[in-house]
Amino acid sequence: MLFKITVRQLSLKLAALISRRPGAAMPTNSKQTSPSVASTAGKTLQSPSASSLQKSLAGSALRQAGTPAQTGAATEGKASRALDSAKSAPLTRTLAGSVVSQSNKKR
């Protein structure tokens, strides 16, 4: 019997199987980056004047657009510090807010 499956579908299934640990549930996220923030993040990644922090946060926000991906601990820390700083630009705060809102609530 022939199965119709794309290479992408196969690689996603394999990645899911490899990353699972026995008895551990995969962390999921019901929140996703909004289309407006995703657009802003894409423009930020292309901007030569964006800071490395802004580009890092933009990459994380885009990764979480349309997927159940969850913010990692290191990125969550960066985003949290950006939100705490009075010196953070509005763009940085927008990206950081999106990233933090999709973090693991147990951390």
Query: Fraction of residues in helices?
Result: 55-70%
Average pLDDT number: 81
Helical/strand content category:
mainly alpha
Number of helices: 5
Shape: globular
Rg from alpha-carbon coordinates? 16 Å
H-E order: HHHHH
Parts with pLDDT < 50 across at least 5 consecutive residues: none
Number of domains: 1
Q: How far apart lie the N and C ends?
A: 47 Å
Biggest sheet details = none
Structure summary, number of beta strands? 0
User: What fraction strand?
Assistant: under 5%
How would you summarize the topology of this molecule?
Layout: H1 7-19, H2 35-46, H3 52-63, H4 73-84, H5 90-101
Helix pairs in contact: 2-3, 3-5, 4-5
Q: Can you walk me through this structure?
A:
- Residues 20-107 are annotated as: Disordered.
- Residues 27-57 have a biased composition (Polar residues).
- Residues 64-75 have a biased composition (Low complexity).
- With 107 residues, this protein is mainly α.
- It has one domain (32-107).
- Helix content is 57%, strand content 0%.
- The protein contains five helices and no strands.
- Helix 3 packs parallel to helix 5.
- The longest helix has 13 residues, at 7-19.
Summarize this structure briefly.
Residues 27-57 have a biased composition (Polar residues). This protein has 107 residues and is mainly α.
Summary tags:
107 residues; mainly alpha; 5 helices
